[in-house]
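Key result, reporting period 2: structure in, sequence out.
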């Protein structure tokens, strides 16, 4: 009798194991999507061998996954870029097209809402910037079960703050914070807890960290490895940043502080990967790592010193490649090829369709996005964009359109003639040789497509019709 019981237990155990490994379970993979804030293409050492700051954890992520070298942010500043990521709309159709405090509307469906409707636990930890408490864009109304961090992107400038926002079970509340605590620590603690608490169900973890956005302020413990024995910076020459009544705190050694922030970001990516492995989730979890736009020069940051744009021209707020081309790494053992580099061209507005395809979630149809799941899996990507489009307006209207090898950039100020620049990105990645005068027919073709790529903004805050013509 004892043998029969033991045999039955063995059969049950085998059945449970097989169920856990069954195809049905594998059709609901976990998604972790990490977005750094203002991290340049050249700030990741596996994308830029000449980087002054090594990023070993991110580099290891690339070694275990696929590195995409022609991936583009939604825009060249935070809020509209994140709008494109969440909604799948490019800057010709997005509701949020600039950095003004504009919330998403009820009808703006996010990738989190789609995954949540498909049974996913959804959590966001870091910076939102697309709606505050009481507004239609508040995270609990946009598909997130849990949130901890900054709703307001101006508040997200403060790494040492007296409060952060927490959302749980639909309730939004301000949480008092010790002003000596580094907000990055608190955000990461909540993110890792979310992983532990949801390891037995499919989850979507959106991790929009604030590093390395200004201000350049970090705990002394993080600064120490970048200082000499006499307390001076290892990254000379240093030019102190002095706050003259602006947003950001003074920083006597901005180079050292920036290096500390990049290093901390790198180690936090490593912590996420390590916990995924410890929880036994490695074979069923996609980890994405990217940045919301190009590198900044605020608060004393020095993108030229750190070669933050890598081989590209421009930084944050530019529509040159340095402002919009960002690093992307995707890792999923057994699903995503390891150690591969891909030059497939895609963008933030493709993320919703791609994640839906990866998770067997109904895909959005009225967006600008395509699914790049095939490219992620190392297979032939049959459907590609004929063009990619951006627009941005601060001090002047800027537009960019990429089609094949060619990129057209348009500059327009109110009452002044437009300026057009044409670059061949295959032969001139750094956008140094303006070919507009040499190829007027190509300029006309791309200029015509640029007009077709956009519709008037539904939000008056981004109505630039008085400038465009």
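The corresponding designed sequence is given below.
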């Amino acid at each position: 009798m004892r043998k029969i019981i033991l045999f039955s237990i063995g059969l049950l155990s085998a059945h449970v194991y097989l169920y856990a490994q069954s195809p049905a379970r594998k059709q609901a993979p976990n998604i972790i999507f990490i977005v750094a804030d203002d991290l340049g293409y050249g700030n990741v050492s596996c994308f830029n061998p000449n980087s002054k700051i090594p990023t070993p954890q991110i580099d290891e992520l690339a070694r275990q996954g696929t590195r995409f070298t022609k991936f583009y942010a939604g825009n060249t500043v935070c809020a509209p870029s994140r709008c494109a990521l969440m909604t799948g709309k490019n800057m010709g159709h997005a509701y949020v097209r600039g950095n003004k405090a504009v919330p998403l509307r009820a009808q703006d469906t996010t990738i989190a809402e789609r995954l949540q409707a498909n049974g996913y636990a959804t959590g966001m930890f870091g910076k939102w910037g697309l709606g505050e408490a009481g507004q239609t864009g508040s995270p609990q109304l946009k598909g997130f079960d849990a949130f901890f961090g900054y709703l307001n992107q101006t508040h997200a400038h403060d790494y040492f703050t007296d409060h952060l926002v927490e959302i749980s079970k639909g309730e939004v509340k301000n949480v008092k914070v010790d002003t000596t605590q580094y907000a990055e620590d608190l955000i990461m603690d909540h993110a890792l807890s979310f992983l532990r608490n949801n390891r037995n169900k499919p989850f979507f973890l959106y991790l929009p960290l604030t590093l390395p956005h200004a201000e350049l302020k970090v705990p002394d413990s993080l600064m120490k490895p970048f200082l000499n024995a006499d307390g001076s910076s290892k990254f000379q020459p240093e030019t102190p940043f002095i706050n003259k009544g602006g947003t950001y705190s003074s920083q006597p050694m901005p180079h050292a502080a920036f290096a500390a922030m990049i290093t901390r970001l790198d180690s936090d990516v490593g912590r996420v990967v390590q916990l995924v492995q410890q929880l036994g989730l490695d074979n069923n979890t996609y980890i994405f790592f990217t940045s919301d736009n190009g590198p900044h020069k605020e608060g004393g940051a020095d993108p030229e010193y750190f070669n933050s744009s890598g081989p590209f021209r421009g930084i944050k707020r530019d529509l040159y490649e340095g402002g919009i081309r960002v690093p992307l790494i995707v890792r999923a053992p057994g699903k995503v090829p390891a150690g591969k580099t891909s030059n497939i061209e895609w963008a933030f507005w493709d993320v919703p369709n791609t994640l839906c395809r990866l998770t067997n979630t109904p895909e959005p149809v009225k967006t600008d996005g395509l699914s790049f799941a095939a490219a992620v899996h190392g297979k032939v990507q049959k459907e590609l964009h004929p063009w990619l489009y951006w627009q941005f307006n601060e001090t002047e209207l800027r537009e960019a359109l990429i089609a094949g090898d060619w990129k057209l950039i348009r500059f327009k100020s109110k009452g002044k003639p437009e300026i057009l620049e044409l670059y061949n990105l295959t032969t001139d990645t750094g956008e140094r040789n303006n070919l507009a005068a040499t190829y007027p027919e190509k300029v006309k073709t791309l200029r015509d497509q640029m007009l077709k790529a956009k519709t008037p903004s539904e939000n008056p805050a981004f109505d630039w019709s008085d400038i465009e013509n």
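The first strand starts at residue 30 and ends at 36. The longest helix spans residues 254-278. This case is discussed further under Risks and Mitigation.
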